[in-house]
Specification:
three-stranded antiparallel β-sheet, 281 residues, 3 strands, globular, single chain, 15 helices, mainly alpha
Length: 281
């Protein structure tokens, strides 16, 4: 796996030698549920504007939300700014070391704390994202896909699979994550290109059995509050403010939905009510 990554891994800027822990933390937050192709230009822009936690801490919230653009879940942008302020206030402007200290920061959960520990500070940490979960499910348990919920059993499998030597563990985390992103994908795995296919993958050895059918219904995005919130945020990023009449134009057939979504953005700190309009904070 590690040898494969050495020649097949993507040349991504946050993997370059000398990149700061802050830059890596920002990349990890941006990459959550968002593909690299969308993150790359936003990350480069953010690093030019706010290369240190102190820079982001002092930035206007409205500008932070504008520059987040269409990465999704804009609350993450404000939490990242809160994180920057905590780093400046509590750690002298330097990203702290250790998963416990990282998890104490606003918006930093189990995955991000482990990823920063491994990729920024080169420490041994159990990093588990969707890609790693899928590779482990296939190679170690023979299942086509991991369960929908991350379980204690999966956490234990990841911990047992991680090499004990520190630098090898960092390389292993990078390699397995990259394999899941490029080769061992959810819908079209390229097993012919996989370094594990020759003898390291239980799923491939079993003939690639189909996943167990998931009969739970998934809500379509069209017509959801999440879609409406995204449309309102797009208007706010474009003009800074939007009138109530403009908001109602988004869905005149479901006015309560427009009001509900507008109010939820205000409650989340993503917008401010000002008379008959909304504006960025």
């Amino acid at each position: 796996m590690i040898s494969w990554f050495a020649h097949a891994g993507r040349d991504l800027p946050w993997r370059h030698e000398g990149v700061s822990a802050w830059a890596i933390l920002v990349s990890e937050v941006m990459l959550q549920q968002t593909p690299v192709v969308r993150v790359l230009p936003r990350w480069q822009e953010w690093m030019e504007l706010w290369p240190t936690p102190a820079d982001l801490a002092d930035a206007p919230a409205a500008e932070v939300l504008r520059r987040w653009d269409r990465l999704g879940y804009p609350r993450r942008a404000l939490r990242l700014q809160e994180c920057a302020r905590a780093i400046v206030r509590e750690h002298g402007g330097e990203v702290p070391r250790g998963e416990e200290a990282l998890r104490a920061l606003p918006g930093i959960g189990e995955y991000t704390a482990a990823a920063v520990t491994a990729f920024a500070h080169h420490g041994r940490a159990v990093v588990v994202d969707t890609n790693i979960r899928r590779v482990l499910a296939r190679s170690r348990t023979g299942h086509a896909l991991p369960d929908r919920s991350y379980s204690a059993a999966e956490r234990g499998l990841a911990a047992r699979s991680l090499p004990t030597e520190r630098l090898r563990s960092v390389a292993w985390n990078q390699a397995v994550m990259e394999l899941g992103a490029l080769v061992c994908t959810a819908r079209s795995p390229r097993c012919a290109d996989c370094p594990l296919a020759a003898g390291g993958c239980a799923w491939f050895a079993a003939g690639r059995p189909a996943p167990v059918e998931d009969t739970r219904r998934r809500q379509a995005f069209e017509g959801t509050d999440r879609q409406m919130r995204g449309q309102i945020m797009a208007l706010l990023r474009r003009g800074g403010s939007v009138s109530d009449e403009q908001l109602l134009d988004l869905d005149r057939e479901d006015v309560p939905r427009v009001h509900r979504c507008s109010a939820s953005l205000v409650a989340d700190g993503l917008a401010v009510r000002e008379g008959g309009s909304l504006r960025l904070p």
